[in-house]
Each structure stands twice: as C-alpha cells, then as structure tokens.
Write a structure and sequence with these properties.
- This protein is α/β, with parallel strands linked by helices.
- It folds into two domains: 145 residues, Rossmann fold; 68 residues, Orthogonal Bundle (DNA polymerase, domain 1).
- It is built from nine helices and six strands; from the N terminus they run βαααααβαβαβαββα.
- The chain has a six-stranded parallel β-sheet with strand order 3-2-1-4-5-6, with helices on both faces.
- The protein is globular and about 50 Å long.
C-alpha cells in the first residue's frame, strides 16, 4: 500500500518558465518555432540540464550537438534565471489543493526535480499561514547531484530514502515520460499528469489524469491510487 508521495516540480506543481527558457535560448542554434511543447515534453522535460540540451539539439538535427550542448544549457539557465526574477512562476491550483490536503494529514511528501532552480521557485510560492510551498515537504531533493539522471531512478530512490519509506510504497507524480520511466525503474507507482493533452506520452504510468483534482483523496490516504468515482 502507498505511504508517501514524491512530486516532480515543473509541470506538476509549478507552471514554471523552463519550456520558454529552452525555446528562447535556442536562438542561433536552430529555428525556435521548431521547439514545440510536444518536443519539450518528449525530449527535454525531466532530464538534467545538459542531457536535455543535448536531446533537444539532436532532435532538431543541429550539427555538432554534443559539442554545443554545454553552451545551449548555459544560455538556457541564464534565460531561466531572468524569467524567475521577473516573477514568471506560478503554482497550479489543483497541485496546491492536493499538497495542502496531504500536508494536513501529515502524509510524507518529497520534491525531487532535476532542476537546480526548483527549490527557489517553490520557496517563492506562498501558501496558507504565511508558509511557502517548499515548507510543506519533508524532503527536498531538487537539484541533487546523481550519477545518472532521469530516466534512471536514482533521484527518486534518494527521495524515498530521505522519507524513510520503501520505494514500493512511494507514489511518484510526474508529467514527463522520463520521470514516469524513472519511477517504474525504481519500483514505484507512477501518477502521470497530462496537463498538455499528452496522455499518450505517459501511458506507462499506473494512472494518468489531466488534473490532480481527479485523484481520490480518501483512497490515497488509505494507500490506494484511483480517480474519484471509480
């Protein structure tokens, strides 16, 4: 039975500007119009920064992708930091509702994102009683250095260990195929969040929803994953 939840951040908890930063940083490497949301979700989302940069350049057929990925990743980071400074980060209302409800029941939760910026973005989101969103989680693994990033399960396994819960009893909430694959590789349950009409990309998850409001909260607190009314 499930006993803890591990959340990815970008696309699950936050409507962060990662995709926009990747697209705008592509200027000079390739036609930015070719960097679509579908390509971002399939090739880049959920991966460590340089892995995502390389994947994007390869998908776009950029010459010497391996040699140029570092520069692209650095430009993306600079653009992302500028967007964060401009206040372009918002939490999804359905995610806030779920996290606050679980926190009220002292349900163990962790955040685990490849992004080194995720903690700062979560800290910037204010919730009830003057707290910030990051403060609702018992463990923060965002940006943790691992030998192998997603789709390898290492980051999620570290999160489970930080919570003191065995992987088989952890639920990972993800919006990216690489994240779902990482959860399954770690022996964890996976909940796919298809906010972009991309459920087909997440089909290997145990359950796919378009909104976290669809999750049956009483069932989850009892250790089961299902949608309301099922």
């Amino acid at each position: 039975m499930l006993a803890a939840t591990i959340f990815d951040v970008d696309g699950v908890l936050l409507a962060s500007p990662h995709e926009r930063a990747w697209r705008e940083a592509l200027e000079g490497f390739a036609d930015t119009a070719r960097f679509t949301t579908a390509m971002y979700q399939a090739e880049v989302a959920g991966k460590p920064r340089e892995d995502g940069a390389l994947a994007a350049l390869l998908a776009l057929g950029v010459a010497d992708a391996a040699g140029r990925a570092g520069d692209y990743a650095a430009r993306k980071q600079a653009r992302l930091e500028a967007l964060i400074a401009e206040g372009r980060v918002e939490a999804f209302p359905d995610a806030l509702r779920l996290v606050e409800a679980l926190a009220a029941w002292d349900w163990p939760m962790a955040v685990a994102s490849s992004s080194k910026n995720a903690s700062a973005m979560l800290r910037a989101v204010k919730v009830s009683e003057g707290r910030n969103l990051l403060g609702l989680f018992a463990a923060d693994l965002c940006g943790r250095e691992v030998a192998h990033g997603k789709p390898a399960p290492e980051l999620f396994l570290l999160a489970a260990a930080a919570l003191g819960i065995e992987p088989a009893r952890c639920l990972v909430v993800e919006d990216a195929p690489a994240g779902v694959e990482a959860a399954r590789a770690g022996g964890m349950a996976a909940l796919g969040v298809a906010r972009l009409d991309d459920a087909a990309l997440l089909q290997t998850a145990d359950l796919v929803v378009e909104s976290l409001d669809e999750v049956d909260m009483p069932a989850l607190l009892a250790g089961r994953l299902r949608v309301k009314g099922s």
